[in-house]
């Protein structure tokens, strides 16, 4: 797949290493990754930027990922959100999907999973 | 926290981390020479496979035990099988939304609590949403209908109702009315409170998931970067990635070290106790709240006082009694025999049942961590029990089947340290946790 421009992916996770690793990994796949360390900084600086997808950790200090999810999905149009689930909390992740998240990724995840899910989230809904 | 289980996790994980860490270091060196980059990518692939295998197979608690429901189910399998059937849903303002009839029973009340403030306290805290973060069974007081107080264990977890944040509370009674309503003593109570495998495994899984996830991503990126013929900039980038991967592996290793230091602090804290009494107390705790308990035969040999970590030994007894009851589930003529006796310089506790015994194919894995035949179990109970017994200088063994009987577990503990003037002198805190007090006395 040839990517003419670099779609922006937002990563909201309180762990700097996860943000950096996703930046390195997805950067190599042609994405421009922006990291946000907590819900507030994402809401202040990231929410208004157009994004191809948002990777959102549910377990963060302060406002939880689920709270932020609501703010994202309230915007129209809203980017697809992939929930990063920290300790295999499947019911919570399913709940997030019900509330508008596109899908969830369970830590520890591997690069192929993330890329597959990001690409699927970005693809037009009619193709799903 | 259950430090013994932490210790076992640590043992399982430490070998693996050294492997990945070595790969990462190895790879970093490899990057200096472009001609052997192919080899390093090969090694990385090996490392990745180790990671995947470990996460998929070696730690079921992480892979599929992470949900509250499953982990919750796993806890009783570890040691206490008290039935939990009373539940309550509380809203964010600590008002009772719903509860079932079983809750009225444990609250000794005939009137509904729906719409009223939650009639519970954990310590001085009465807001259930604050208890959720503890992720463990907590000792709690219920204000009963007749103005008294009942002690129960409560587990709080998030429970969304139509998008609103609520808390689901599950209860376990701490006393067994059928057996005379006796409350467990302080230590047994503390034991039940500390059955924190849920908390331990969840916290540890979360802690380790962070560096592991980053490590996997860095290594996979590196692998992709080194495909084909990498140019100079790819080599520079690869060097950075491998350094970062090494840093994350080191971070995971540091977590393991912290866990190890916790586990070391939990050497047996020996006190002199009457062995038969603490066994009996643990048997009561194990049976508390169970329905259809098997017939119990107690044959205590008056083995006298012994210097042990009573909480840890009671953990073994609870686990063995719970296992025996499980083996007898649905068996109307089920019976459990609990026997203590003195054999030379040891005491032996035998807990046997008349169930089906242990099949030969299960024997080899019986005491190994993460092996289980129970649905919802995570296979740590017996391995932890054996580790505790060995930590006391004793052992836990099993007779898998005797004609006419089922399995019989035998816990043997040395009694040398159980008497004498020095025992009392050392009754305080052990100054050097690396040398259990009981062993020092023998020198």
List keywords for this structure.
heterodimer; A: 128 residues; alpha/beta; 5-stranded parallel β-sheet; 5 helices; B: 443 residues; alpha+beta; 5-stranded mixed β-sheet; 15 helices; 13 strands; extended
What does this structure look like?
- The complex is a heterodimer of chains A (128) and B (443).
- Chain A has 128 residues and is α/β, with parallel strands linked by helices.
- Chain A is built from five helices and five strands.
- Chain B has 15 helices and 13 strands.
- Chain B has helices at residues 3-31, 37-58, 60-63, 68-78, 101-106, 128-131, 186-193, 197-225, 232-265, 275-287, 310-327, 360-363, 381-391, 421-425, 437-442, and strands at 86-91, 96-99, 120-121, 138-143, 149-158, 166-173, 271-274, 295-300, 305-308, 335-343, 346-353, 395-399, 408-414.
- A six-stranded antiparallel beta sheet of chain B has the order 2-1-6-5-4-3. In chain B, strands 8-10-11-13-12 form a five-stranded mixed beta sheet. In chain B, strands 7-9 form a two-stranded antiparallel ribbon.
- In chain B, a hairpin with an 8-residue loop joins β12 and β13 (408-414).
- Classes of the chains: A alpha/beta (128), B alpha+beta (443).
- The interface between A and B is medium-sized, with 26 and 37 residues.
């Amino acid at each position: 797949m040839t990517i003419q421009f670099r779609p922006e992916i937002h990563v909201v996770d309180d762990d700097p290493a996860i943000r950096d690793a996703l930046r390195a990994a997805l950067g190599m796949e042609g994405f421009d990754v922006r990291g946000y360390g907590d819900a507030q900084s994402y809401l202040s600086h990231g929410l208004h930027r157009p994004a191809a997808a948002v990777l959102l950790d549910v377990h963060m200090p302060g406002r939880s990922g689920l709270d932020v999810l609501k703010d994202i999905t309230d915007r129209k149009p809203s980017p697809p959100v992939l929930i990063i689930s920290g300790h295999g909390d499947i019911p919570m992740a399913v709940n997030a999907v019900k509330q508008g998240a596109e899908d969830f990724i369970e830590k520890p995840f591997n690069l192929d999973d993330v890329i597959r899910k990001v690409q699927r989230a970005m693809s037009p809904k009619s193709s799903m | 926290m259950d430090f013994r289980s932490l210790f076992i996790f640590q043992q399982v994980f430490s070998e693996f981390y050294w492997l990945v860490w070595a790969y990462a270091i190895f790879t970093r060196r490899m990057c200096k020479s472009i001609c052997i980059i192919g080899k390093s990518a090969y090694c990385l692939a090996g490392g990745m496979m180790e990671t995947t295998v470990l996460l998929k197979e070696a730690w079921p608690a992480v892979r599929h035990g992470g949900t509250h429901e499953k982990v919750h189910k796993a806890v009783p399998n570890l040691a206490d099988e008290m039935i939990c059937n009373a539940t309550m849903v509380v809203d964010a303002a600590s008002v009772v939304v719903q509860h079932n009839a079983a809750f009225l029973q444990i609250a000794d009340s005939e009137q509904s609590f729906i719409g009223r403030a939650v009639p519970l306290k954990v310590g001085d805290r009465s807001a259930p949403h604050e208890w959720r973060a503890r992720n463990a069974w907590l000792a709690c007081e219920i204000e009963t209908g007749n103005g008294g107080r009942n002690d129960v264990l409560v587990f709080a977890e998030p429970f969304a109702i139509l998008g609103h944040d609520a808390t689901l509370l599950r209860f376990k009674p701490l006393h067994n009315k059928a057996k005379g309503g006796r409350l467990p003593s302080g230590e047994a109570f503390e034991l039940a409170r500390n059955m924190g495998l849920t908390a331990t495994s969840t916290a540890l899984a979360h802690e380790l998931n962070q560096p592991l996830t980053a490590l996997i991503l860095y290594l996979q990126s590196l692998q992709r970067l080194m495909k084909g013929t990498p140019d100079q900039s790819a080599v520079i980038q690869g060097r950075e990635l491998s350094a970062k991967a090494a840093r994350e592996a080191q971070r995971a290793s540091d977590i393991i070290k912290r866990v190890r230091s916790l586990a070391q602090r939990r050497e047996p804290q020996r006190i002199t106790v009457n062995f038969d009494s603490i066994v009996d107390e643990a048997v009561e705790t194990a049976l508390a709240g169970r329905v259809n308990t098997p017939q119990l035969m107690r044959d205590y040999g008056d083995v006298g006082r012994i210097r042990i970590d009573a909480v840890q030994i009671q953990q073994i007894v609870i686990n063995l009694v719970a296992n025996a009851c499980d083996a007898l589930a649905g068996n109307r003529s089920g019976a459990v025999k609990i026997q203590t006796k003195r054999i030379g310089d040891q005491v032996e506790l035998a807990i046997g049942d008349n169930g089906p015994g242990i099949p030969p194919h299960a024997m080899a894995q019986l005491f190994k961590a993460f092996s289980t035949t129970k649905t919802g179990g995570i296979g740590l109970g017996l391995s932890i029990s054996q580790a505790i017994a060995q930590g006391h200088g004793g052992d836990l063994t099993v007779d898998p089947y005797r004609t006419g009987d089922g399995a019989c577990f035998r816990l043997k503990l040395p009694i040398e340290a159980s008497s004498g003037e020095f025992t009392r002198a050392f009754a305080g805190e052990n100054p050097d946790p690396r040398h259990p007090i009981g062993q020092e006395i023998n020198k």
